[in-house]
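Annex B, item 7. Sequence and structure tokens for protein A, then protein B.
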Amino acid sequence: MAEPNIPTLNVLPAPRRARAAGMQGKRWVFVAVMFVVLGAVPLAASLAGESFYVSLVSRMMIYALAALGLNLVVGYGGLVSFGHAMYLGIGAYAVGILSYHGVGNGYVHVAAALAAGALVATLVGLVCLRVSGVAFIMITLAFAQMLYFLAVSLKTYGGDDGYALPARSDFGFIDIGNATVLYYLVFAVLMLALFAVSRVVDSRFGMALRGCKSNERRMRALGFPAQRFKLIAYVASALVCVLAGVLLANLTSFVSPSYMQWSVSGELLIMVVFGGVGTLLGPVVGAVAWLVLEELLSSAAIGLPWGGDEFLREHWLGLLGIVVVLVAINLKDGLYGSLAGRKEREGT
């Protein structure tokens, strides 16, 4: 049966097309500002003599990349996955296991990680997408925990203690042994992922995916293969997280089962909601804001009286929870979602 035509942004009525164009313009202005700011971080860190910030912002961008992938299924497909940390772990362990056996080629690491991630995501997706709602959340969580305990049982690769990489991946002339080079590699991957996701969500496929989120039964009645669209989106989002895992292993020079714990999946979800679920840049803003708050509160040294700094450092998780509650109550569309407005979240 032939699939019906889906209206894209190019065939929307003129007023809606103008609003969409305006929102896309603002979005790309934000991207341009972000591009300049992130691009200048290594220079600023060098001038300040604080190389630590290069690693810190690299970590933020890696988690932003993972949150961006998760948002593809949560924000545009309406599939709340509580197991995407599993794909972060697959990417990291692909690097760790190959390095342990003497394979240091970075391109082989990436290819193996993507192949393993695609295989696992397809199999998990075929099972999970048979259900929806709370059942989908629980099954994705169950698969992630199974993989977590599998990693713990791999004593050859460190078990629950993890495994320190002998060296970072070898990408030939791209020497990521240098922290600044690795930073710009992470930066480039994040920018490419942003561009790719923006093209996907504005494409015919993206419109159909959003239609499945709004009313899957109607999309099926119209002849759309809703399950196939959701499976493709699920695998694509998993592969973005796999790439983030490859970069995380190289940044820390370490792989650990903790990368795929359920709490990491929860953090990724919070980042997406914190920034603005269903918006292109919301996950990036959410990841950066979340990790900045985590860093500020866990290492507070602002000279508060009566041991205030020590209190902040000891109870920073509780304070972070209060911030999340305040944002959830007052900014229902998240930090970026509230700035961009509901129209971008709805895509028109």
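Protein B:
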Amino acid sequence: MTETDNRNGPTRRTVLEGGVATGVLLATGLPVYAEPAGAVAAAAPPTPAPTKPMSLRINAKDFAVELDPRTTLLDALRNHLGLTGSKKGCHHGQCGACTVLVDGRRINSCLTLAVMHQGDEITTIEGLAEGDRLHPVQAAFVARDGFQCGYCTPGQICSAVGMLDEARAGWPSHASADVAAASVALTDAEIRERMSGNICRCAAYPNIVAAIRDAAEGA
């Protein structure tokens, strides 16, 4: 049967196709044209992302890697170097689970690119202990049970290590009564303020503060 029968008028198929085309035109303002069979173009294969050779020094060891320059330091650690101690939490620098030390300073590794840290000394949670001997902050967290689910703990400990060095150097915080003082008394208020970039959703904060205080007093 032809699409239009001179004796009986338009067929059921042409009426339906015309209705669909009218609907699309009203909804989008775009006309619909019939595509010939086999006219659908095959999707182009994705272009591989360019990579760059890099040298990263992590936990006193040199690593040669080749990464997309857009790779964050956190993804380089976890996905390419197998250092999964640093956790990916919010991915926006708000929870602190990914905190590592770069040249002794604590940073959110999700907010920085690996390529920016060639030549830097990067320390992750895996690099704090010396053999079987825990870092004093790690030991204090264990003694005080400063963790529950433990997901935030690597970032908390790295942040605490960096924070204690900042306090020893006399760096003030928003909680410091005298920002010009040569030394900082690590009160609980000081510890809470300085650790405010690290979130524990299990609410283990009292034990975390106590562990950091113990580590500070034992140093």
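Comment on protein B: The longest strand covers residues 52-58.
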